[in-house]
Amino acid sequence: MLMKIKKLITTIIIISTLLLVSFFIYKNFFSQIPAPPYKTMLLERKNIYQTINATGTLEIKDTLKIGSLIAGTVKKIIVKENDLVKKGQILAIIDNGKDDTDVQSSLGQVKNLKAKLTYQKKHLVRQKELFKANQISQDFFEQVVKDLEEIEANLITAKARLRKYEIEYNNTKIIAPDDGIVIAIGVTEGEAVTVDLNATVLFKIAKDLTKMEAQLNIDESDIGQIKKNLKVKFSVSAYPDKEFKGLITDVSFAPKKSNGILSYKSSLCVENKNMLLRPGMTINAEIKVAKSKNCLTVSTQAFQISNKLIETIAKKLNFKIKKANKNLIKTMQAQCEKEDTVKTIWITKNNSFVEIPIIIGITDDSYYEVKTNLAENTQVIVDIEETDELKKIYSKIYDSAI
User: Fold this and answer.
1) CA torsion sign, 395 to 400 to 401 to 402?
2) Which helix (H) or strand (E) holds 271?
3) Rounded Cα distance, 354 and 346, in Å
4) In this structure, is the dihedral angle defined by the CA atoms of residues 13, 19, 25 and 28, taken in order, positive or negative?
5) CB 321 within 8 A of CB 309
6) Max alpha carbon distance in the chain (Å)?
7) Pick from 362, 370, 308, 315: which is nearest to 41 by CA?
8) C-alpha dihedral over 252, 254, 255, 258, to 10 degrees?
9) d(Cα 193, Cα 187) in Å, to the nearest integer?
10) What is the DSSP letter of 309?
11) Where are the domains of the chain?
C-alpha cells in the first residue's frame, strides 16, 4: 500500500514538473506580445499595366471566296489545297449540260445576218439609182431602206446574244481572280453547283498568309476601354510557350448575345511572317488598355474592409472612429477624370481608425493607382484578422497550472 502511495506521489510530482517546465518554456520562448487584430500595408510605387482578357478565332485577313456564275456540275478540279495560283489561272471546269452549243448557234446567226447586211447594202445602192431614174416607186425604195435597218438591228441583237453565250460558256472555267494560295476546296468532281442565295463556295484563296486577323469577343463591361491601335499579346494552344503580338484595328458597335452574356466584336490584326499561325486557331488574348509607371499604389484588399468589422475592432481596442467627410467625397468625385473614381481607405492614427477618401485610377487587379497626394509611408489597413483561439486555449491551460 505504501508503495502505491509513493508511486502516485512520484507521478504527481513528475506531471507537475512537466507542466511547470512547459509553462516556463511557453512564457519565455513562445509567448508574444499580442499582435493587433488587423494588417496594414505601406503605399508603394509600382508600374501598373491594366489589361483585359478576351478570346477569339484566327482568320486570314484577305480571303477570296470563289463561286460559280452558272449552275451545273463540277467536271474537273485542276488545283489542290496549298497550291500557289496566279491571277487568271483555271481552277476548275463546270459542266453546264450544253457545252458551247449556244455559242455556235448564235455565231451562225451573226454570220448569216452579216451576209444579209452585205447583200442589202449593195441592193440599196442599186435601188437608189433606179429610184433616181424613176424606175421604182418611192414606197418600194423606202421598203428597201427599212429592210436594211431591220437587218442592222437584228445583227446588233444577235451579237449581244452571242456575247452573252460566250460569257456563260467562259464562266464554265473557274478562274483565280488574284494571286494567292488555295486554302480550301469546297466541292468534289461530279458535285452539283448552285447559284441561288445558298451559292456553292468552290474555293477559298488566301491572298497573303502572313497577314491574319482575329475577331475577339469583348465583354460589355470592358468594351468602353477598347479602342483602335491598342497592343495585344496572345497565345494559342499549339504553341503554349510562345507569345504572339497584334494590334486592335476595329471595334464593332453591333452587340452579340450568347447564353445571356453580351459581348462586342473587336478586330485584331496579326503578323504571321513565320507561318506558325493557322486559320481556325483559338487565341487567348491580353489587351493592354492602360499603363502608369512609377505611380503610387494601394492593394485592392484595402477596399474590401467592412465598416462593421472596423467598428467591432475599434470597440475591442478602445479606438475612436473618424469617418470620411461626405462633402469632401462629392468634391473629389467632381474632380475625377473620365475613368477615375473615388474610394475610401482606413488608416490608424493616434489610437483611431481614420477613413480617407482617395482618387484611384487604373488597376492590374492586385493594385490600384493612387492619384491623391499621399505620403508613401502611409500604412493602410488591408485585412482584419480573427482572434487566434488556439493561443487563448494554451494560455488558459498554462495559467491554470500555476
Assistant:
1) positive
2) strand 261-271
3) 6
4) negative
5) no
6) 177
7) 370
8) -90
9) 8
10) H
11) 38-46+294-389, 53-61+209-292, 66-193
Q: Tell me the three cell numbers of residue 327.
A: 462633402
Tell me the fold of 53-61+209-292: Elongation Factor Tu (Ef-tu); domain 3 (2.40.30)
- Per-residue pLDDT at 113 exceeds 90: yes
- Provide the b/e sequence for 299-322 (b: ≥16 CB within 10 Å): beebbebeeebbeebeeeeebeee
- Rounded distance, CA 356 to CA 373, Å? 12
Grid coordinates in use for 221?
A: 463591361
Beta-bridge partners for 206? 63, 181
Inter-residue contact 343 to 358 (CB < 8 Å): yes
Element (H, E) at 85: strand 84-85
Dist CA 13 CA 215 (whole Å) = 81
pLDDT tens digits, one per residue of 262-295: 999 999 999 998 889 998 899 999 999 889 999 9
Distance, in Å, from the CA atom of 352 to the CA atom of 162, rounded to the nearest integer, reads 98
DSSP secondary structure code for residue 142 in this structure: H
User: What tens digit of pLDDT does each residue of 156-179 get?
Assistant: 999 999 999 999 999 999 999 999
Asked whether the predicted pLDDT for residue 389 surpasses 50, the reply is no
Contact at 8 Å (CB) between 247 and 19?
A: no
Mean pLDDT of the chain: 87
Contact 38, 384 (CB under 8 A): yes
Mean pLDDT over 34-45 rounds to 82
| Cα gap 266→253, rounded to integer Å | 9
CA 398 to chain centre: 63
Length of the chain: 402
How many Å is the Cα radius of gyration of the chain?
Answer: 44
User: Tell me, what DSSP letter sits at residue 345?
Assistant: E
The one-letter code for the residue type at 166 is E
> What is the average pLDDT across 232-237?
94
DSSP sequence for 6-20: HHHHHHHHHHHHHHH
Distance CA 263, CA 253 (A): 10
CATH 2.40.420 for domain 38-46+294-389: yes
The answer to whether the beta carbons of residues 216 and 54 sit under 8 Å apart is yes
Which 8-state DSSP code applies to residue 213?
E
